[in-house]
Design brief:
mainly alpha, 63% helix, 6 helices
Length: 167
């Protein structure tokens, strides 16, 4: 019989057909253990450095946040300034002066009659503004008197608002 025929699976006495390979590892020497330990420590250090490099720094976050807030603060500041100017203009130009009635001096001279009520229409625009005077020279004193009356009324209203306690 040839040696090759003895190793064939048919000639195996137990009938399993093949053998199992068991790896053999000799025990590690001190030098091999030290090298393995040092390589593992180097791998751990590299992994830790990569993790630190990927994590953002707090100072960098603060700088980024501050730079991102600059345009937001500028937009809100501009909007606030615009609204303040707008409301001030509205208050200045849209407040109507109290209507100056020329009928009031006439009523003061005549004593009121009991049981008689005089009704007057309240116009948004004073009658002087509705009908301009015929001569320009007569318009200037009337206009100045009207402006002075309006200023005095606005001053009285502002003083009344300041004197009244806030609800």
């Amino acid at each position: 019989m040839s040696p090759s025929s003895e190793r064939t699976p048919e000639s195996a006495p137990d009938g399993s057909g093949s053998g199992r390979v068991v790896p053999f590892e000799p025990p590690l020497s001190e030098l091999q253990r030290a090298i393995q330990w040092r390589a593992q420590a180097a791998n751990d250090a590299d992994r830790e450095r990569e993790h630190e490099a990927r994590r953002p720094k707090p100072v960098r976050w603060l700088v980024t946040l501050a730079l991102a807030l600059v345009p937001v603060v500028m937009i809100f500041g501009a909007l606030d300034a615009f609204l303040r100017v707008y409301y001030r203009l509205i208050e200045t130009y849209m407040t109507t002066p109290a209507p100056v009635s020329e009928v009031q001096p006439a009523q003061a001279s005549s004593p009121p009659q009991p049981g008689v009520v005089l009704l007057q229409a309240y116009d948004v625009h004073p009658p002087e503004a509705a009908a301009p005077p015929a001569t320009p020279s007569a318009a200037k004193p009337a206009r100045k008197a009207q402006q002075e009356n309006a200023r005095q009324e606005n001053t009285r209203q502002k003083n009344a608002r300041q004197d009244d306690p806030a609800p």
